[in-house]
Structures are given as structure tokens and as C-alpha cells.
Amino acid sequence: LIVLIVLLALYLYAYIEGITPFRRTQVVLVIVFFLLLFLKGALWSGIIPSNQGYINLFVHSDLSMKLMHKDGEIAFSSRFAGTEGRIVRQSELPIRGSLIRWEEDISELQEKQEKLLHIGQALQQSYRLLGQERELQLESGVFRAKERLYDEIEAVFAEKKRELMKYLAVLERDDDSAEFFQAIRRLNLLACFLKKRCVMLLRGKERQVLAARELHLAVEESKKYANEAGISCAVLYDLSGEVPTETALRFYDIMENVLEQAILHRSAPLMITFYKKESICMTFRFAAAEPWLQQQSLYVKKNGSDSSVRICVHDEDGLCGIDVVQEEGGI
Description:
The chain is α+β, with helices and mostly antiparallel strands. 57% of the residues lie in helices and 20% in strands. It has a five-stranded mixed sheet with strand order 6-8-9-11-10, with helices on one face. The chain has a four-stranded antiparallel sheet with strand order 2-1-4-3. A two-stranded antiparallel sheet has the order 5-7. Helix 6 runs antiparallel to helix 7, helix 6 (178-204) packs antiparallel against helix 8 (245-264) and helix 7 runs parallel beside helix 8. It is rod-shaped and about 165 Å long. The chain starts with a helix and ends in a 5-residue tail after the last strand.
């Protein structure tokens, strides 16, 4: 750099003194040339800091990396961490004219993957256990539902056991009397009631609603056996869609009790009507006054005492019968 300064000073002196070879030059270009040489020399000498020492920086770094020639010979290599207690994965990437190869510590990644694997296995096990628990709950629910159905069916048969035994006692005599044939007819009516009530109970218990057609079929079959037992009975049925199961069963219970009492007292012709306005209704209308309606009204109240069913008994001039109405928000 000192030499450059001295040469520049000599050039300028010669130029100022008018020495012919120096006077003919472009002083500005010469000064710029010397300036560039000075800057270059300053960079080489380190007077001006510059980017250099890349090789030393790479060699002394902890990159765990190698720069290799195409033939596999190592050109430069950084420091490598020890592999003891570590899980290392080697990777490489071709670059122009050579190859770079490095090592990655995947111990932490491997540990996290193992934890995720254990968590996944635990979740699968939990899912299987929850599925088994759900299946057990469903099986338990089905078992309880069946048990309730059996209890209800058994309660129905227990309630009618006394009548059944009475009719069977008459049938055991087998004397071809009028009482014998009447017992057969009444037994048919009772058997029809038990059969149809169980059918409606089973079909309507799951959804808690029953097709109105099911109640209609039960009513028509009971009417048939009631007519055979000696009572003139007609039915007007004007229900459609679906009926709450408990409502249908309660109405059918009441109808069976009324028919039993009507046959027992040899009542006048009877009209039974099913219809719906604001609520589902069932009415019984007799062609003549029936004193037993008031006397036997307790059995009707027994069927409706634990529900929101309103029962009205009429035994007046011009109106003899029973009205059964499902209260709003009732069964």
C-alpha cells in the first residue's frame, strides 16, 4: 500500500512538472486506477474487514456435515457430535460438482413418535373398552325392557286370572248347558283381550306410540266376541296416524271392562265411538238406562286413577253411557 502511495505521488509530481509521457495521460483515470489498487490491497491486507475464512468456519462448526467430491473423496468436513446415546439419521443432497452429506439427531423426534404411538394404542384400547361398555349398556337396556314387558304382561294375566279360573271351572263340567256355552263365549272375549293387549304392548313399547290401526283391529275383534257373547255392540272408529301406547292400552282396558260388565248385566245395545278433537276420546252409549253404570264405576276409576284420563259416567234420561277423555299433557 505504501508503494502505491509513493508511485501515485511520483506520478502526480511528474504530471505537474510537465514531463511529456506523464503529461499526455488522463490524470483522473490514473487516480481511479490507483484507488482501485489501493482498495484491493487494503482488502488483501485485512485493513478493511471482509468476508473470508469460510473454510475455517465450516471446519470448526458443529454442523455434522461433509462436502465431498463426486468420487466420494472428502473435500471439507465439519466437526461431528458423538453418537453415543443418540439416534442419528444420515442424509445427503447432490449439489453442482459435488455432494453434501450430513447427520441429524432424531432422538427427540423418535421419543415423541414413541409417545404418540403409546397414546394411540391407549386411545384404541379406550375406544374398544367404550364400545364394549356401550354394548353392555345396550344389552342391559334390552334386558331391562324385556323384563318390564314380561312384568306388565304377567300383571295383565294376574289381573284376569280370577275370571279365567271361573270360566275354566265351568268348562270342566262339560254339561252342554247354556252356562257352559256362555262361559266359552266369555272366555273367547277374555282370550282375545289378553292376546291383543300383549300384541299392542310389544309393538308399541319401543317407540311409545302405536299405529291407530292396531287399536282398531283389537277393538273390532273384541266387538266380534262381545256380540257372540250376547250383547249387541257397534263401533265407530275415527282415529288415524299414531296413538300413544299407554293411551291405547288404557282405552282398551276400559273397553274390555265395560264389555264384561255389559255382558254380565245383559245390557241394552251399545255404541262405542273413538275419535279425536283436542284430545283422544272414547265414548260408550247404551240404548237404555243401565243402573249398573254407577254401581260398577269403581272398576273404571281403578284403570284411570294413575293417569291424566278424565272419566265421566252418565246415567240420566236420554243419556246413558261413559265418556273417557285423554287430558292435555296426559298419557
